[in-house]
Amino acid sequence: GHLDPGGHRKALMKTGLVLLILGHLNFITGALVHGTVLRFVLTARDATSLHYGVTNSASVIAALLTISCGVCALLLSRYLGPAALRWALLALSCCSSLSCLCCALGLLVAIGLTLGNRGGVLLAPCSVANIALAPVSRECPFDPTRVYSSTLSLWAISLLLEAVEIFFSARCLLLSLGLLRL
């Protein structure tokens, strides 16, 4: 098939920009979840909080991969020449879509666990007696009434971002396959 460099350039540029934005948004969401909740929870050494930590770290790694995939697509949209860049995009978009897929699954499990234990692990740093007395006491590093809903909504946002990232990473993958004529 004949390559239409103009069309390919445009598609790569759009996809690259979208991936850059998505990656940054996901990075911020992960950082927010960590900063507001997980850094207090991760001291509890149980399987659930460990899963939260792993999932959150994974989504930060996935976000970084998505960002580099976007940067690579943008570079390639400017210089369609170098074969190394095409292979780099192939590899990055592959890794990015796979890691986003893993994260999406991890997030689903995290949301399931949280709904299952009604946020018990999230509220573990708070001593139960004080929740009724004072929403934010010295024992509780955050407002227990809000932490449950805000963590879940941040995870839902993250899940949505992962899904869109998978779509655009896959699109990048197809574009790079087209460029490599595989």
UniProtKB/TrEMBL annotation:
GO terms for cellular component: membrane. The keyword Transmembrane helix applies. It holds the Pfam family BCLP. The chain crosses the membrane at residues 17-37, 57-76, 88-113. It is a multi-pass membrane protein. It comes from the Eukaryota. Keywords: Membrane, Transmembrane, Transmembrane helix. It is found in: Membrane. Belongs to the TMEM54 family. This is TMM54 protein.
